Amino acid sequence: MDDPAKPTYTASQWAAPGSVDIRAKGKERTSGYAHRLVQLPLDVSPPRFRFERIAPKGATRDVVTPYDVTASFFAPALVIRKIHIEDAWGGEDVLVMLPPGNP
Question: How far apart are CA 40 and CA 19, in angstroms?
Fold first, then answer.
């Protein structure tokens, strides 16, 4: 069964010169969760990220709650092809959308 909380990841390298932007979007079945994309403290290029879901403390409501979180890093002289994001579902490599005209 698919987990609706599992995010859909996108990444692009064209919003600002040299900036690589990463986005995680999804829905939770209940309210109160916090979400974030954290750059891992590894000396690798491109950097790796982890998607974190922080469970609420206390009572929650049974209501579908959308989330949309972003992170970015600066890579002025590099064309980044993919970003690895770890998550509770194992993680995945996300292809980076490049500006028109880039190979």
Answer: 17
Q: Count other Cβ atoms within 10 Å, centred on residue 71.
A: 19
Provide the β-strand partners of residue 73: 20
For residues 40-57, one letter each, b for 16 or more C-beta atoms within 10 angstroms of the residue's C-beta and e for the rest, the string is eeeeeebbbbebebeeee
Q: How far is CA 92 from the centre of its chain?
A: 10
Asked if residues 28 and 67 have their Cβ atoms less than 8 Å apart, the reply is: yes
The single-letter DSSP state of residue 31 is: S
pTM assigned to the model: 0.85
Q: Is the pLDDT of residue 103 over 70?
A: no
